[in-house]
Amino acid sequence: MVTMQTREVERIACKSLKEFFREIRPSRCPVVLTEAVDHWPAMQLWTHDYLADTLGSLMVPCERANLFDCVTVNDKGSIQRVDRPRIPLSQAISAMREPNSIAYVTEWQALEESSHLRSQVGLDSDDLFAHKNRSPMQMYIGSQKSYTPLHFDRAPNFTTHIRGSKTWKIFAPRDSKYLYPYPRLSQMGHFTHIHTKEDMNDFNRFPKLRNAVCWETEVHPGEIIYIPEYWWHSVSSIDETISLHFFFKTPLLRAKQALTKPLNWLLRRRFNSDSNSKN
Ligand SMILES: O=C(O)CCC(=O)C(=O)O
Description:
Elements: E1 5-8, E2 10-13, H1 17-24, E3 31-34, H2 41-45, H3 48-55, E4 59-63, H4 67-70, E5 86-88, H5 89-96, E6 104-108, H6 110-113, H7 115-118, E7 138-142, E8 147-151, E9 157-163, E10 166-171, E11 213-219, E12 224-227, E13 232-237, E14 241-247, H8 251-278
Parallel strand pairs: 1-11, 2-3
Antiparallel strand pairs: 3-12, 4-5, 4-6, 6-7, 7-14, 8-13, 9-12, 9-14, 10-11, 10-13
The chain binds 2-oxoglutaric acid.
């Protein structure tokens, strides 16, 4: 049987940002951080039923289909349509429990909208969450059918797993050449032609995948996965899941991106006008 080479993601107990930047960030590898959030009341309280009962009428962004079923992407990686309506949380949770639905609440800034939920986590007191340049926390609520296709982000990511487990498949930026990415300068340049969970094992359609090294791990409640910027990742939920995600930028990363922004803008503009004139 043909498979990819795999590597284990290391697990390290870490509660302090200083320790994270001293011991973990320099390795430039994904890591699972443990023991940081075990004391959060959310760990005991948050379930799908609890969220539906306490905050069911809040309007939340909900995907009703795989990203590539609601976005049409041409070969050049330009997006034609994006569709992610807001619906009441209780309706989203009922939808994800229907047999043929893949409803998935994603990127919901729940803690900005609910001080009740915010009081159940340690963002204001726990050092690991004290990044100066942290994005708002985003909540994802899913079912065992939820799947996020392979992509990378331009900032490092911490995802705290509160309920249920997820399988993360992660690839280093140096393996991009084996992952069939869309053109880097296109709107979908951070996604690849590998759209589904099944595609990840389809070595007939994607033969170069065999050469990639997959860092694979199952992340459980109470654990935080750290994904460095530009590392590819796809995520499948194993059961009903609730997780909190944020990105942060270090001063060095901000400076690097600020310096390259004008050049990237020019290259993107040129790329898009070239591909429009060829269409
Ligand atoms: O948990 C997920 O489904 C996707 C998370 C993810 O890809 C991210 O936070 O960048």
